[in-house]
Design brief:
- This protein is of the alpha/beta class and about 600 residues long.
- The protein is elongated.
- The strands form 4 sheets. Strands 4, 5, 6, 7, 8, 9, 10, 13, 14 and 15 form a 10-stranded mixed β-sheet that branches.
- It has helices at about 20-35, 40-75, 80-125, 130-135, 145-185, 200-220, 225-245, 250-255, 260-310, 315-335, 335-340, 340-360, 420-430, 460-465, 475-485, 500-505, 510-520, 540-550, 600-605; strands at about 15, 190, 195, 375-380, 385-390, 395-400, 405, 410-415, 435-445, 450, 460, 500, 525-530, 555-560, 570-580, 590.
- The protein starts with 14 loop residues before the first strand and ends with a helix.
- The chain is built from 19 helices and 16 strands.
- The protein folds into 2 domains: about 15-365, ABC transporter transmembrane region fold (Up-down Bundle); about 375-585, P-loop containing nucleotide triphosphate hydrolases (Rossmann fold).
Amino acid sequence: MADQPYNGASVQPVTVEASSLRDQLTTIRQALAGSPVRNWLLWTSLGILAVIIATSIGQVLLNRWSQPFYDALARRDMEAFLHQLLVFAMIAGGLLVLNIGQTWLNQMIRLKLREALTLDLIDQWMRPARAFRLANAGAIGVNPDQRMQQDAAHLSDLSTDLGVGLLQSFILLVSFVGVLWELSSGFVFHINGWSLAIPGYMVWAAFLYAGTASWLSWLVGRPLIRLNSDRYTREAELRSSMVRVNENVDAITLYHGEADARRRLELDLGTVLGAMRRIYTAQINLSWVTDTYGWITVVAPILVASPVYFSGDISFGGLMMAVGAFNQVHSSLRWFINNIGGIADWRATLMRVADFRIALEETDVLHDEEKRIAFGDNANGSLTFEKLQVGSPEGCTKLSDPHVEIRPGERVMITGEPGAGKTLFFRAIAGLWPWGSGRIGLPAGETPIFVPRVPYFPAGTLREVLDHPNGHAPASDADIRAVLAEVGLERLSSSLDRSTRWERELGDDEQRSLAFARLALRQPKWVVIDEALDAFDGPSLRRVLSMLEKRLDETAIVNIGRGQHNSHFFPRGLTIVKDTGAPALKPVRVRAGAIEPPPAAARRKK
């Protein structure tokens, strides 16, 4: 969650710097350029371009067919009428095949575009430490799941539909402008003895008619961009509140907090409904423009073509051909009018997805003007802290001793008063929180294992949870069962191949015990623990310490916590203190044009 405190210190608000449409389009292009489905998307796009061109040719042939067909009707020529019906069947059959092919290609582009966008966002999000930094970068880190799942899918659908529609309209426009120009060329208006020749006047009439409608539609429909973005924000807050209630149903029930939870959900629902009402009002205002032009369009092409018809320059069939060509040109030109709502929705969704990706990249340079902790390797295999100070928005966290060396196999307890910054210090050692000063020397050639307060278990079988891919070696069933028994979880020995959500299957102590069982099976040389031992009850703690004594007898263990443990197991003690006089971290800057304020659930303190 965003805006969560670092060990009691609330995060400073992020200064919002809006990204431009150019920035957003650039970052989406970068996402697609590196996608494994890029070539597939390219060839599919070329395929749909070919189908649209072929369809446009068929539409031109169908328009030309209308003149002899209606002329045959005017002459009451049955033979010519039947022949034209056969021609129509051939043209319509070809267009039917092309339309089905275009629909299939459209769906495939939507599918692959979503795959490309979502895979890229997941890849950017899951780069080392990025998800953690984003979650602590402010409001842009709230509800990343919605941006990667719902927003990316919606952007893919809208981009495909609008893009294909725009391409089709452009090709039809190019195809029929020539037809319409030819039909209206050479016509001269005679008004009170004056003669006025306007080359291709029906083309200019179509451009003027559609251009006026597009301009009015943009003026009325432009607020939908902001309103749609606001709606997605409010929807995210409602979903976040619902997820939070679902994850805390036990506590809510025990505290009889149903009424408070209901009020919170009703409040969030009210903001969603309010956003939707504003969208509906804007859509109604837009409908006044689009529907008015829609009704005028029923007679507009006939009115435009009637001077040529009544002058006797074209036949009735030619009139219908001109009306069809005008409708095709006008339909292409009014693509913007017909899709103003979709364009506003696309713009809002692009803003959310692109700004999220921009923020992911820029979290790598958070606090880029602040000093950073230096990291290095110690050839003698020890862990050292040299004048280490960990920066935070409320000061600095440091060890009382400025020069500390922890040797291989040593067990050290690091304690501190509440609010001193124990978790912040843990994150600094792990490299998650690099801001501060001094140096952390890590044992050369070793990869320490970091144990957080709340364990994480990936989805899968218990064997997969315990036999971690980064482990020392694949653990045998006998080793797994023995370790489970040592931490009091022998009942799980028969469930090694059962897949479930283990964080819901087990109690809090059992989850922590399982995490230490996994640690023992991995056989690391260095372990750093963040208050994970503090929450154990007495018997559970004794079992875990006994297992660590037996299984990790040569492992260096650094435990950061309250210090209420066996002094025999941790013979050495260090102290963390808060240096409130040191300079605090300044607020960060992350570009994001659609950043919303984080929901109340994300602003709560631990």
